[in-house]
Amino acid sequence: MPQSFKHGESYPRLLEYLPKKLQKELEFLRSFFAPYTKRVYLVGGAVRDMIRGEVEEKDIEIKDLDIEVYGIDRELFDELMKKLGAKGVGKSFFVYKYKTGIDISLPRVESKVAKGHRGFRVELAKDEREASLRRDFAMNAMMLNIFDARLLDFWGGVEDIKSRRISIIDEKRFKEDSLRVLRAVQFSARFGYKIDERSCEVMRDMELGDLSKERIFWEFEKMFLSGYPHYGLYYIQVLKIDSKIFNVDLDRKFFFKTALELLRGRKGFEKELEKFYFLYIFAKNQHRRFEYFLDILQTPKEYYNAFRRQKYLPKSRTDRFLAALSLLYPLKKYLGNYKEDVKIRAKKLGLWESKFQAVSPEELLKEGYSGKELGLELRRRNLEAIKKEFKGKE
């Protein structure tokens, strides 16, 4: 049974959720910081995922560590980071990169002074509680001392995790960064957590027009790869992200149809295509061109390549349709292949790994075809062969 957790108490067991390599790094950092301060904490996502692992009784991979160091001044901190060989990544933010996946910083508070995600004034925080206020959600604001494993949970992060809930800490500070709305959505989709109603009210009133396309896409891609994409879809609608970013208004009928398709279809998602299925199903059920959403999100080129020559999945899927489609690509690259019948029949027809080919380009080259004419004739003859082979089988 998972433990209960109380603010201020020690839980050494939590550190066992870290990979051995990171445990070894922490052992070194304890000895390194011990002569100067013992107020050194793991913060943010690593602590959240340790608690999630314990509460949900499952292994959660932790790759990155954020560490905050208290009780020393900026000059000594900079000196110590030089000794470690850590690289500063913006001295105004007091953050250093130490080895792969480990950030070390001084505690800070941020105040909005200008538009955009860079428009913040950053100052040193006085103590642990004040520093934790800059976090977006209670589950991300917990801290674990690397020396004695003492847990600091000022805002009820443990209770939120137990309740599978996302809640904001400070309304005023939360509103200073609109990206946090999209972070809430991707966390909901990744963890299967609900966003509490008061937090939803705050987020609904926030504008998203100041966000760059790049930052928007980063958060959406995390949702595309999530375990609960229907949660993400729900909050896209509830928080009015549909109209604010995509200029569409999703109704209940669309939500239930698409959520059910995402939920049922997920077990059939091919690993190498996993990030593309959400947008495929979303666009298909919106009856819009795939490029409409790709352009809005300004997705990387790999998305355009994946969606090139894709076809909507029809309600009635005949063998003739699948064979004709396989003239474009093997059906393992078709984004409608999450449907079980498509996959089964594609493999049975031998079209999963290979394209349909009754006539080869080499044969047509011998007949004198070349260039564009060769391509057109190749398609015409293969379509003719498909009609003959599947005649009467509709």
What does this structure look like?
- This protein has helices spanning 20-33, 45-55, 74-84, 128-132, 157-162, 171-174, 179-191, 197-204, 213-224, 229-238, 241-245, 252-265, 277-286, 290-297, 301-307, 319-325, 340-348, 361-366, 371-389; strands at 40-43, 65-69, 87-88, 95-97, 102-105, 108-112, 120-124, 143-145, 151-152, 165-166, 194-195.
- The chain has 394 residues and is an alpha+beta fold.
- The chain has three domains: 1-163, Beta Polymerase, domain 2, CATH 3.30.460; 178-308, no CATH class; 311-394, no CATH class.
User: Radius of gyration in whole Å, from Cα?
Assistant: 26 Å
SSE run:
HEHEHEEEEEHEEHEHHEHHHHHHHHHHHH
Q: CATH superfamily of the largest domain, called what?
A: Beta Polymerase, domain 2
Overall geometry:
elongated
Taken together, the total number of domains comes to 3
* Share in β-strands: 5-15%
Q: Major beta sheet, specifics?
A: 7 strands, mixed
Q: Helical amount among residues, as a percent range?
A: 40-55%
Distance between the termini: 55 Å
Name of the CATH class of the largest domain: Alpha Beta
Number of contiguous helices: 19
| Architecture per CATH nomenclature, i.e. the level-2 architecture of the largest domain | 2-Layer Sandwich
Outline the fold blueprint:
Elements (H helix, E strand, L loop, with lengths): L19 H14 L6 E4 L1 H11 L9 E5 L4 H11 L2 E2 L6 E3 L4 E4 L2 E5 L7 E5 L3 H5 L10 E3 L5 E2 L4 H6 L2 E2 L4 H4 L4 H13 L2 E2 L1 H8 L8 H12 L4 H10 L2 H5 L6 H14 L11 H10 L3 H8 L3 H7 L11 H7 L14 H9 L12 H6 L4 H19 L5
Helix pairs in contact: 7-9, 7-10, 10-12, 12-13, 13-14
